[in-house]
Amino acid sequence: MTIHDVDIDALTGGSADLRRYRGSVVLVVNVASRCGLTPQYEGLQKLYDEFRDRGLVVLGVPCNQFAGQEPGSAAEIEEFCQVNYGVTFPLTAKVDVNGPDRHELYRELIGDGPDIQWNFEKFLVGPSGTVEGRFDPGTQPSDLIPPIENLLPR
């Protein structure tokens, strides 16, 4: 099983259909609108703009498990992301990334590894759906350019 086999809803409803990302490099990030790291949305959008034509997908996964920093509804999250950061990359429904209700996507990403530390932890997933890297919340999106380029077609 890979992330491509996981069912997760899109933020705006319906399936996010991760199967369509087979063959793409996917950067999965648990996001929040009221966090000190929220300005990373800008860098994530820049990565998406720069590399999407070569096969990069940035997938934002809202989560409210860290100090209640993503309390909004789907509509509020979508509006916040678009108005403040011009986000055009896909966002999923809000899910739990830790604990007994951890979403299947994060069970697949984490495997036997440690729990998510905080908002904006990042997983770099290769074209086959396997996790190629895990990056702590403080890792800036621009720091991910070299590992992303290593996975993208030339």
What does this structure look like?
The chain is an alpha+beta fold and 154 residues long. It has one domain: Glutaredoxin (3-Layer(aba) Sandwich). Helix content is 25%, strand content 15%. It is built from four helices and four strands; from the N terminus they run βαβααββα. The protein has a four-stranded mixed sheet, covered by helices on one side.
- Per DSSP, the total helix count is 4
Beta-strand percent range: 5-15%
Mean pLDDT: 97
Under CATH, the homologous superfamily reads Glutaredoxin
| SSE string | EHEHHEEH
List strands and helices in order, with pairings.
Blueprint: E1 25-31, H1 40-51, E2 56-62, H2 74-85, H3 104-110, E3 122-125, E4 131-135, H4 145-151
Parallel strand pairs: 1-2
Antiparallel strand pairs: 1-3, 3-4
What key attributes describe this structure?
25% helix, Glutaredoxin, 154 residues, four-stranded mixed beta sheet, 4 helices, alpha+beta
Quick recap of the structure?
The chain has 4 helices and 4 strands; from the N terminus they run E-H-E-H-H-E-E-H.
